[in-house]
Amino acid sequence: MVSGVKIAVIGAGYVGLTTAACLTSLGHRVVCADIDPAKVRALSRGEVTIREPGMAELVGVGLAEGRLRFVVGAGKAAPGAEVVFLCVPTPMGPDGAAKLAALEAAVAELRDPLPPDSVVVNKSTVPVGTAARVGELLGRPDVAVASNPEFLREGSAVHDFLNPDRIVIGSADLDAAKRVAALYEALNAPVLLTDPASSEMIKYAANCYLATRLSFVNSIAELCERMGADVNDVTRGMGYDQRIGTAFLRPGPGWGGSCFPKDAHALLRSAAVIGSDFPLLRAAIDTNARQQRLVVGKIRQAVGGRLAGTRVGLLGLTFKAGTDDLRDSPALAIAELLAAEGAELVGYDPSMPGAVAGIRVVDSAYAAAAGASALVLLTEWPEFRELDWERIAGQISGRYVIDARNHLDPLVVHHAGLLHQCLGQPAPQRALSR
Ligand SMILES: NC(=O)c1ccc[n+]([C@@H]2O[C@H](COP(=O)([O-])OP(=O)(O)OC[C@H]3O[C@@H](n4cnc5c(N)ncnc54)[C@H](O)[C@@H]3O)[C@@H](O)[C@H]2O)c1
Ligand SMILES: O=c1ccn([C@@H]2O[C@H](COP(=O)(O)OP(=O)(O)O[C@H]3O[C@H](CO)[C@@H](O)[C@H](O)[C@H]3O)[C@@H](O)[C@H]2O)c(=O)[nH]1
């Protein structure tokens, strides 16, 4: 006899699949629905297509124990569910606002088959006020609505879900909120019960704060470079201050991914809709675009001022290491800027992404370096630190390695006779004198 709370998860992407697999591992019974029949078929066979450590194992165990099932369509998952998690996409619309079409479609499908006294919990990132709107759309006074934003990071989704810094639950119905909190009891995490609007705002505030912090760090890196300071030491010195902390201080080619850019634009748009503004967030977004142009400027300079007809090798295409997700990747944004100036792009990424528009994707870092006028590291994959730089020096046609993640050991690159140029340090030669 299979025990545990009966849960439906709508959406089998990064958030939905993680939620389904992890709640199963906590002893609950989960039916996970998606609109994509091919995805449902593959998952039902235990085939996990996203790159997330531990996910395939959890899905395999859940299927084998009969605790986890995949179905096509939200309506199929609803019957018998005590709690329903909405984990559908909320992409950026043309005006910057989050598009709620998938959420509305899922809610419409759930309206009739939902059992009485069930709770609909929104895990998608949605503008403040959406929980109230979900309640209206459902039109089921016997069904409670809650907001329970998700804070997992791609590449460590299972770990983050099972080891959360906090669990936030917002609902006008305290009993419903407590029922949702009880699902996570085994995690022993701090639980914040609040109203739906505050819960929805917590998610945007957290992501926009982190994005703003990164834009701040990237700006400090630029000043360091121009003023003769070393941003690696500067951020280390900042991070020792417990009020600041060490996380999220690495300069880079700008922040990206499926969340930060769209969430920053969505909050800015929400502010505009109520006749307000958020100039600090606007500046963080502008600084991010500027950071990408700045990296392009370094590359242009490294190849002698003219990108047209110049081959540039790209190391890393995903928005960060440890994921195969290319959505809103700064590496691709930079590639687009380079291509617009006529550069010929050859790229390698350890996640082996297949075809990428405008880039000739090759199967090794060495192939990306061969014949390139400059080699640019855009994603901080650990394996790039282990490269044979002597071999690269023998294949590259230029001398510059632009390290847009401050990821490589400058001495190793220099010893191979190449010029290592990272962010926030005055000159490529500096490492030699250390
Ligand atoms: N990716 C992350 O790291 C992350 C973390 C926290 C929060 N979020 C938020 O969670 C939400 C989902 O993001 P994601 O990255 O999991 O998206 P995703 O694109 O990886 O997955 C969404 C899934 O929902 C399915 N879907 C779409 N419409 C549906 C419908 N009507 N019924 C059933 N399934 C449907 C899609 O086919 C897809 O498989 C977004 O609001 C996002 O902002 C994402
Ligand atoms: O010191 C740092 C840390 C991150 N980044 C960049 O910031 C972006 C976002 O990174 P990360 O936060 O690790 O990735 P996500 O998986 O998008 O996770 C963020 O977005 C999710 C979706 O909302 C949230 O759930 C997570 O809490 C939040 O960290 C990436 O481009 C990173 O390369 C840096 O440049 N420097």
UniProtKB/TrEMBL annotation:
EC id: 1.1.1.22
UniProt record similarity statement: Belongs to the UDP-glucose/GDP-mannose dehydrogenase family.
Organism: Saccharopolyspora antimicrobica
Domain UDP-glucose/GDP-mannose dehydrogenase C-terminal, chain residue ranges per copy: 313-410
Protein name: UDP-glucose 6-dehydrogenase
Active site: 259
UniProt-annotated binding residues for NAD(+): 34, 39, 90, 125, 154, 262, 327
GO BP annotations, alphabetical order: polysaccharide biosynthetic process; UDP-glucuronate biosynthetic process
SUPFAM superfamilies: 6-phosphogluconate dehydrogenase C-terminal domain-like (SSF48179), NAD(P)-binding Rossmann-fold domains (SSF51735), UDP-glucose/GDP-mannose dehydrogenase C-terminal domain (SSF52413)
Enzyme class, first EC level, given as a word: oxidoreductase
Key words, A-Z: NAD, Oxidoreductase
Gene3D superfamilies, per the entry: Cytochrome c1, transmembrane anchor, C-terminal, NAD(P)-binding Rossmann-like Domain
Lineage of producing organism: Bacteria, Bacillati, Actinomycetota, Actinomycetes, Pseudonocardiales
Keyword Oxidoreductase: yes
